[in-house]
Amino acid sequence: MPPRKKTVTKTAKKAAVKSTSSRATAKKKAKAKAKKTPKQKKRRGILITFEGSEGSGKTTQISRISTLFENAGLDVVCTREPGGTDVGEEIRHLLKHASPNTKITPEAELLLFAASRAQLVREVIAPALDKGKIILCDRFLDSTTVYQGVGRQISAEPVHIINAFAVGNIMPDITIVLDIPAQTGFARIKHRTTDLPDRMEGETIDFYHKVREGYLLLAKALPERFIVVDGKRSRKWIEDKLWNELRERIG
Ligand SMILES: Nc1ncnc2c1ncn2[C@@H]1O[C@H](COP(=O)(O)OP(=O)(O)OP(=O)(O)O)[C@@H](O)[C@H]1O
Ligand SMILES: [Mg+2]
After folding, report:
1. If you measure from the C-alpha of residue 20 to the centroid of ligand 1, how many angstroms do you get, rounded to a whole number?
2. How far is the CA of 49 from the centre of ligand 1 (A)?
3. d(CA 19, CA 24)
4. Residue 13's pLDDT band (boundaries 50, 70, 90)?
5. 60, 62, 238: which to mutate for ligand 1, most atoms within 8 A of CB?
6. With contact defined as beta carbons under 8 Å apart, do 131 and 45 qualify?
7. pTM score, whole prediction
8. Protein residue whose Cα sits closest to atom 16 of ligand 1
């Protein structure tokens, strides 16, 4: 029995040495990988989306914030939804200015917004993120959650699935909600001159109350992504507030 024991001990020792040495090699490899990763990984940009109902000041603030980023020496891409690509702009025109007789169903509307988004993500947003740029996007997937989900009352599940399919692995890093009462927004944009009626602007005040509530609920559920700002304040006050918040979050 003793020799057998010896053999076992020897074998066990050998195995232990082997496993220690292979563990040591694995450790070395992991260490080398960890060291290499930050250098090899491309700097990812930042996707900041702007949300809020009509006339809340999204376009105004995107223009101001993009200037601030540019002055800080950063590369900024401004884009919008629906739109931002040739295909997306065609979809935008269809969605915003379809004649009242066209009667786009809520389901078709949801898919058209998603199609525009899918194109924008792959043609503009993902490549810009890979280049480390800051992207300021006028509306994104939360608009669909709120307008088609809460406003048009399509159930949450298809909205979520279609949104997820459209964006793939691209989610906003930060989402800004400019919060204003629907009436204030409408008062701001009623002087807009356009030869075409805008479908969304033709909605009832009740629809926009739901939209506002929908945004606030989303922001409450995801405070780490959302920044809600009082859109009734002056343009400059909002700009300063946003810039401070963004600098705090981006560093
Ligand atoms: N804080 C503000 N106070 C008063 N007026 C504002 C403020 N911000 C923007 N405006 C004005 O309100 C109007 C609507 O602003 P803006 O176009 O930026 O809103 P929006 O959210 O982009 O609207 P939409 O959803 O229709 O594109 C513009 O005439 C703009 O100059
Ligand atoms: Mg706008």
Report:
1. 66
2. 16
3. 8
4. very low
5. 60
6. yes
7. 0.83
8. 57
